[in-house]
Amino acid sequence: MNVAITGGYVVPVSGDPVENGTVLIQDGKIVAVGADVTVPDGVPVVSADGGWVLPGFVEAHGHLGVHEEGEGWAGQDTNEMTDPNGARLRALDAINPADLGFADALSGGVTTAVVKPGSGNVIGGQTVAVKCWGRTVDDMLVREPVSVKSALGENPKRVYGDQKKLPSTRQGVAAVIRDAFTKAQDYAARKAAAEGPFDRDTTLEVLSRVLDGSLPWSQHCHRADDIATALRLAEEFGYRLIVNHGTEGHLIADLLAEREVPVIIGPLFATRSKVELRGRSLRTPGVLARAGVEIAITTDHPVVPIHFLVHQATLAVKEGLDRAVALASITVNPARIMGLDDRVGSLRPGLDGDVVIWSGDPLDVMSRALRVFVDGREVYRYADGEGVVESPFHRES
Question: Can you give the residue ranges of the Amidohydrolase-related domain (predicted)?
Fold first, then answer.
């Protein structure tokens, strides 16, 4: 799709803002950003009318489409809680593009989301990055898989403890991870040594990719002791660790910074519904960032509705997070952490044409997303007091 968005205050995030700037998109990709962009003949022009123009936001950790809103049991496909090691499972296979959450995402300026299995299993499965608009998940796909989800702490020990099976303690949870990677190491060695046909194991194939560095490990952990366990296991097996949630990350921020482990922090609006959330604070993002930790802010949708992603960033600024870091934490940072920054997260030539026109500064709670473009196609518009999403199910072929 081709479009030129003109006359806006363009905030590329990865560069300096541009007054009265233009973003030119051709064939779904950004080809130029600046104040003196020549718009080719025949390219439709959309005026931002002085509004703010930003890249679509990136949600780095949520359950869009696998935990459908308003559908109850029928729309709940977040956790396959029958096997502690679900590495072979794929969130891709459970996403329903008709989930109401996708429309909410667009209304909040979120155009890309990393969808992850839940935290009921010790190893939940493979995560996937999708655009927030499309008829099928295959249409929406950005990259798959982008990481493997794992959980420490209360959730897996409660799920399997209630079943009277391993793991029922934190010791057991760590042991499941350690056993799984030990088996994956042995499997990789046997596969490398095989001279003929080899019986593949889909679970160990995935874990082998974590060990060889091609897939990062997205580790659900809230308490400081669980984060320390995550660091210990990552050091033992040598994989790339991404801390998800990191509620008490402020207590060991120096260790996270020293080991260059990013933190996808949040949800920040959630209640302290369990013991490991007692340390939840809107100040934590600022503490982590000032310590030198790369952060992304998450809603953990539907724990916090995904269109409130930007509001979490706003209140984190109120509690000490640098404003520029706050914008980065919902754009370029999550894209970089999840290995998607060659596609999304900023406004620069070569990236996907995912652009949002805001009525004003998006960190002002009174601002709203007015027009949303995905791959250069307008998919959401706010007008006359109502937001309208273009239906992906009724479009020209």
Answer: 52-376
